[in-house]
Write a structure and sequence with these properties.
The protein is mainly α. It has 19 helices and 2 strands. Helix 1 packs antiparallel against helix 19, helix 10 crosses helix 11 and helix 10 crosses helix 12.
């Protein structure tokens, strides 16, 4: 659990976590292999490249792949790693020993790509339909150039054949997307975060300008600099260097993540109880982040319903009078689009919206004529999205325990009798999927997913002996693994990532609920201002 002192009281640990987050201007995520490799490829002019090369080489797995999670999640980071290594070899600016290591990395990476499944389904990560074909094309281009060069890059080495485009992807998508928006004469903000996927296809006139990170992404920013002009702007170099200094020369997929981190941490802790010492800080966060025009997760991103809903919810939890009106921007008649132009919806964004709307109405009964019908529709929509066996999926997280915990929390508190059957099915599924060691997890037991599962079980006061045993085993597991540090990456961006402080807050809050559960009767320990 990061730097939190495990044997301190809940209030001490929670207050320490809030204080640490308040002092961090970037957010607690690990560097991204995918993102760092994209910067290596596009920005040879950026200081600090030797550290990035070391990171690239050290992060390759024994099987030759890169990235976290199961093999299907390793497709995109492995493509990125192979292409970056080829770019470095082509430039010829490394030592002989480093070049030999890079050549070996390419061979092993290409072998790992050949060993991956050749058909879907593939993970629903950000813009994968653009990024995967774009990188496959780049690798083939690099290999062709290296093969045509009469001077071998190192010791007579030549790369093997490039990877086939996996089934389910279309090689023409990046060019099609670029052509579509070239005809429209503008590039939507939703493509800024993954701009590197279309950078080689977009007309120069459509390349976004600005001194800051493009779409909060170092990869997109480096790609913009590489395609916009022969020399990068000083502001771009400075923006990338600042992020690199925070992450030991490497890069995360989004920087900063303060909005997401602060809102999710505040909601997790307030769901148990927010230490009095932390309330002014969290009020300050909510006041700063709430925006009547909608809240965006990071500078350069689109406003979205998820962050907007969480800003409304956290404001309510700490007694601020911020209305749900900004959510109107995203309502489509039955539920909320996460952002304008969204391709696939987010269940958790709508669960957060249900909590925000219902919590506001509880504080302001006079608004029920306005928000009541919308809340009812949203409740029914969430119930309809549940899978028959009990869980809910979501595009922002690889594990169904995250989305299911969010939906159960929203429906238990605000779903009335209409949602009781759905909650019961989710609880039964959770009981059925506990592992022998007391944990839960989609790929293996984790503290993060165990916290979500325990929260699902804690949502109901009707507890059978089996229910009680499951909570006892979960408590033992969480106590035994507290302070273990590294959390597996389960969250979706372009690849998998782990928001450390948010996970820490969830685990900390659930451990306190478990510790005090015999007097809780399924309720939180201390009502927040927004629920009194």
């Amino acid at each position: 659990m990061s730097d939190t002192v495990v044997n301190a009281t809940y209030s001490e640990q929670a207050a320490d976590l809030v204080a640490r987050i308040d002092q961090d201007r970037w957010g607690s995520v690990r560097p991204s292999l995918y993102e760092t490799a994209r910067v290596i490829s596009a920005a040879p002019w950026l200081p600090g490249e030797p550290r990035r090369i070391t990171y690239l080489l050290n992060e390759q797995a024994p099987d030759g792949s890169w990235g976290e999670g199961p093999e299907r999640y390793r497709l995109l980071p492995t493509l990125s790693g192979v292409e970056a290594a080829l770019a470095l070899l082509r430039r010829g600016a490394t030592s002989g020993e480093t070049a030999r290591r890079l050549a070996t990395a390419v061979d092993r990476g290409l072998a790992a790509l050949r060993a991956l499944p050749q058909a879907g389904p593939w993970p629903d990560t950000a813009a994968a339909e653009i990024l995967v074909p774009s990188l496959v094309a780049k690798i083939h281009e690099r290999i062709a150039l290296t093969a045509d060069d009469t001077t071998p890059v190192v010791d007579g080495w030549r790369p093997g054949p490039g990877p086939a485009l996996p089934g389910g992807y279309d090689q023409g998508v990046p060019a099609y997307v670029a052509k579509r928006y070239a005809a429209a004469g503008t590039l939507p903000v939703k493509l800024h975060h993954t701009f590197e996927g279309i950078a080689g296809y977009i007309p120069r006139a459509l390349i976004p300008n600005g001194p800051d990170l493009l779409g909060s992404s170092p990869a997109a920013t480096a790609a913009r600099a590489a395609t916009a002009s022969p020399e990068p702007a000083a502001e771009t170099v400075a923006a990338l260097q600042t992020v690199a200094e925070r992450y030991a020369g490497s890069f995360p997929e989004a920087a900063p993540i303060l909005v997401f981190e602060r809102l999710w941490v505040a909601a997790a802790l307030a769901g148990t109880h927010l230490p009095a010492a932390s309330v002014p800080t969290v009020r300050g966060w909510a006041d700063d982040l709430y925006d009547p025009r909608g809240v965006r997760g990071a500078p350069g991103l689109m406003t979205d319903a998820d962050d907007t809903a969480m800003a409304v919810l956290v404001s309510s939890l700490v007694g601020l009078e911020h209305t749900p009106e900004p959510l109107d921007l995203f309502h489509n008649g039955s539920h909320y689009d996460c952002y304008i132009g969204e391709d696939t919806g987010s269940i958790t964004a709508n669960a957060h919206a249900l909590q925000a709307l219902a919590g506001y109405q509880r504080r302001h009964p006079e608004t029920r004529h306005l928000y009541g019908p919308r809340t009812d529709k949203l409740r029914d929509w969430l119930v309809d999205q549940q899978r028959p066996e009990g869980p809910w999926p979501d595009k922002w997280h690889a594990s169904p325990y995250y989305a299911t915990a969010r939906c159960v929390t929203a429906l238990t508190r605000h779903g009335s009798d209409h949602a009781s059957a759905a909650v019961g099915t989710a609880v039964a599924w959770t009981l059925d999927t506990q592992r022998d060691d007391g944990s839960w997890g989609v790929w293996g037991g984790t503290t993060e997913e165990t916290a979500y599962a325990a929260k699902i079980l804690l949502s109901t006061a009707d507890r059978t002996p089996r229910h009680a045993r499951a909570l006892d085993r979960a408590e033992t597991y969480l106590n035994d693994t507290a302070g273990a540090g590294h959390h597996p990456a389960l969250w979706h961006d372009k690849t998998l990532y782990a928001p450390g402080a948010m996970i820490e807050a969830e685990v900390l809050a659930v451990r306190e609920l478990l510790r005090t559960r015999h007097g809780l009767n399924g309720q939180q320990t201390t009502p927040t201002d927004g629920e009194r």
